[in-house]
F-box domain-containing protein
Amino acid sequence: MDPFEQLPAELINRILLCASDFVGIESLLLASPRVYAIFHDHPGLLFQELMASNTIASAAPIQEITQKVRLLHSPSFNVHSLEEYIQCTNGIHHQPNIHSHGAEVLEMVRISAQIQRLACKCLSTMQQNFISVVSGMPAGSLSGSIRAEKAAKPFSWVEECNIYWALWHLRHYSDLHNYGSRLNWSEDSMKT
């Protein structure tokens, strides 16, 4: 039985908006047909609110790159060259960010959750590697264990944002290459 079946739609909307964690949202959508149906009623507005309430996703450079990724996954988006793509996406951060199609929004939730998982793995791997390197090497008056303790502290928002930005860029370039290949863009234009 779906535990969300008895909850009013307004409460489920509130739960979705308060999550601000794309992995959690993706899990809720997969686990509950009721949550999926309510999300599907207004997917664009809900996704826009999720992006705005997430401290990393709401950063302007990340919003711009997510809009470009969204366009590349939109069935209605059709450009014939890299130059046309650049012209079309120039100043995209000034365009409205409402996603109207349910399938398009669900794909963006899936991609956002994938990026979030990758970012968490990157950050934890970097931190573990850094701790293992500094723990055995004293520096000045700081012993290795003190340096390892300092290295174990949470990353700053800027450090996290840089990881997300890099991962979104990799995703964008991969999607752009796939899009260009699907439409037979010239190899020379895709190397630019």
The chain has a mean pLDDT of 87. The two ends are 53 Å apart (CA to CA). The first helix runs from residue 9 to 19.
